[in-house]
Amino acid sequence: QNYICQVCDDVHAYGSKIIASISPMLPRGKSYGGVSPKFMQQAEGFFPIPPSELATVEEIKTAIAEAVQEAKKMQSFGFDGIALGMMGGLAAANNIRTDEYGGSLENRCRMTFEFCEEVKKACGRGFIVHAMINGVPAEEDKRPEDLDKGFTLDDLAEFCKLAEGRIELLTIRETDMVESHPTGYTFKRHEHRCIGMCRYLKK
């Protein structure tokens, strides 16, 4: 704990901000949307993922509350905000829920936004919330090997609108595991596909 506080102090000494990576964690074997991907893509290839069960509303609320407590702890250490990876189930194809966390895009995003709002209540409006989400290639950037994410650029644009006032920073990642890595530019010579996504979202 003392070491973490010292790291935060050192970062602040240079006039910079520091954030911690925190996301609500559902119980093992449970998923938000009820449909988990069959494979996980990594730099080495695809690896199978065992099937999961649909998380209950109570489990979702508990996961949010526990993550908020972690955010408060990080704030007490000196962190200026948190970074969260977007929870599964945002894509309609991966969300079979029929309650308030399923159906419309706003409902599918509900767990994410409830967490962000609870963090703001607990840590203050000035506490930074940074979210990371996988993007969708623009039409001109699509490739034959791309997998169907069940999540369109229009969905992503709507998500950005809904996120206003809840999320300060949004990182849109490349859909390909290698290219989403910070050193992705060194693997292939091309214009990064995130640029096409951003062009579309700015329209």
List keywords for this structure.
203 residues, alpha/beta, four-stranded parallel sheet, single chain, two-stranded parallel ribbon, 7 helices
Textual characterization of the structure:
- Helix content is 37%, strand content 16%.
- The chain is built from 7 helices and 8 strands, in the order H-E-E-E-E-E-H-E-H-H-E-H-E-H-H.
- Strands 1-6-7-8 form a 4-stranded parallel sheet. A two-stranded parallel sheet has the order 2-5. Strands 3-4 form a two-stranded antiparallel ribbon.
- Strand 3 and strand 4 form a beta hairpin.
- Helix 2 runs parallel beside helix 4.
- The N and C termini lie far apart (45 Å).
How would you sum up this structure in a few lines?
The chain has 203 residues and is an alpha/beta fold. The chain has helices at residues 2-13, 57-77, 105-108, 110-123, 153-163, 177-180, 193-202, and strands at residues 19-21, 30-31, 39-42, 45-48, 53-54, 81-85, 128-134, 169-173.
Sequence-ordered SSE layout with sheet pairings:
Elements (H helix, E strand, L loop, with lengths): L1 H12 L5 E3 L8 E2 L7 E4 L2 E4 L4 E2 L2 H21 L3 E5 L19 H4 L1 H14 L4 E7 L18 H11 L5 E5 L3 H4 L12 H10 L1
Parallel strand pairs: 1-6, 2-5, 6-7, 7-8
Antiparallel strand pairs: 3-4
Helix pairs in contact: 2-4
What portion of residues belong to β-strands? 15-25%
Helix content: 25-40%
Oligomeric grouping of the chains:
single chain
| Gross morphology | globular
Distance between the termini: 45 Å
How many strand elements?
A: 8
Summing up helix and strand content along with how strands pair, one would put the structural category as alpha/beta
Number of alpha- plus pi-helical segments? 7
Uncertain residue segments = 183-187
Lateral strand order in the biggest sheet? 1-6-7-8
Element string (H = helix, E = strand): HEEEEEHEHHEHEHH
Q: What's the story with the biggest beta sheet?
A: 4 strands, parallel
**CA gyration radius, whole angstroms:** 18 Å
Kindly state the mean pLDDT as a whole number? 84
